[in-house]
Design a protein that fits this description.
mainly alpha, 19 helices
Length: 344
């Protein structure tokens, strides 16, 4: 019997989103109003969309020994390696050695958070109206001074509604959504929504605080009241939901240049984090930014994404991103441990 062909739709979505991740990180320190607007537009939806898709792809997680071991080898071990490498990069820049595995550095929070979200799948499945419950949790998490960054606590709860929404989406409903939105007028409308959101962010970017889009949990430092914190969180959740929907309408259905990227997102995410982190300070202090340079910087981000997703780079860095598979003896030992747990 022929093997079922892999659907490129979600791979295309992940491929486009990982490009936005890299471009967004490169734009973080660019001191231009247009770059700031593009940065905030990207951050308004790209990580919520990534979390939503991660939830959808976590539907089969049951916490079996093999699945739990995969969490360790594909997420937690790369997370520790990322933390160590970024700490060493800080040391190379003259900072004291300060390794803290409980406070994710830069973009490593998502890798740790994804492991926690997947562990929560069995619980989310049995909670009645889990999406509504997660929305309430996300909103409540900004009250009473919110949460700190330890264990990515603030973002774990803030992004939880998107993970739960993806988790509860069935393949049948996903297929129905794709069929319903595979019409030209729907795509034109979705494109118009994304463009209008970009225009709105450009006009108001000076009044949009980045911490709101990062989903940090301590908005009190910005001088907001409890009601204002809740209003901001609701606004961000609503805007992100609209943009995720529009984005998914526009994602190509057929295989293309984004498909291969979507199959290698963990490699690209880990590698770009380690590469871009030491560049943040030089980028922020470079005084010669112009719209042309910013545009070229965006193009550089796209090129970097495709380079990091290439087969030669993956082979050369497997020891970093997927060490368990890179070292055969380790993989065999882990597989033996899983078999022992499954048979016990």
């Amino acid at each position: 019997m022929a093997l079922r062909q892999r659907d490129p739709y979600l791979d295309n979505a992940k491929g486009i989103l990982i490009i936005l991740v890299v471009v967004g990180h490169l734009l973080e320190g660019v001191s231009l109003g247009s770059a700031d607007a593009l940065y905030k537009w990207i951050y308004l939806f790209h990580m919520p969309a990534f979390v939503f898709i991660s939830g959808y792809l976590s539907r089969s997680f049951r916490g079996t020994p093999r699945q739990s071991m995969n969490l360790v080898t594909t997420l937690l071990i790369p997370y520790v390696i990322m933390q160590v490498l970024m700490t060493l990069e800080q040391v190379a820049q003259g900072h004291p050695f300060d390794l803290n595995l409980f406070a994710p550095t830069f973009a490593s929070w998502y890798v740790f958070a994804l492991a926690v979200w997947r562990l929560s799948v069995p619980v989310l499945r049995v909670i009645p109206q889990s999406i509504a419950v997660c929305i309430v949790v996300s909103i409540v998490s900004v009250t009473d001074r919110g949460l700190g960054l330890e264990f990515s606590g603030a973002r774990l709860l803030a992004f939880l509604p998107f993970f739960a929404a993806g988790l509860m989406l069935t393949p049948q409903r996903m297929a129905a959504f794709r069929d319903m939105t595979n019409r030209l007028w729907v795509k034109v409308f979705a494109a118009a929504v994304m463009i209008m959101m970009l225009g709105a962010v450009y006009l108001e970017h000076d009044h949009i605080v980045r911490a709101w889009l990062y989903m940090y949990g301590k908005y009190d430092v910005l001088g907001l009241s409890g009601i204002q914190n809740i209003a901001v969180r609701l606004a961000v959740l609503a805007a992100a939901s609209v943009m995720i929907t529009a984005f998914l309408v526009l994602v190509p259905r057929r295989s293309g240049p984004f498909t291969a990227l979507g199959r290698t997102t963990i490699y690209i995410y880990v590698l770009q984090t380690v590469i871009i982190f030491p560049l943040l300070t030089p980028i922020a202090h470079w005084p010669h930014w112009t719209p042309l340079f910013a545009l070229l910087w965006v193009v550089a981000g796209v090129v970097l994404t495709f380079a990091l997703g290439s087969r030669p780079v993956r082979l050369a860095t497997q020891w970093l991103v997927d060490p368990a598979n890179a070292f055969g003896a380790v993989r065999m030992r882990l597989d033996g441990r899983v078999r022992d747990l499954e048979s016990s």
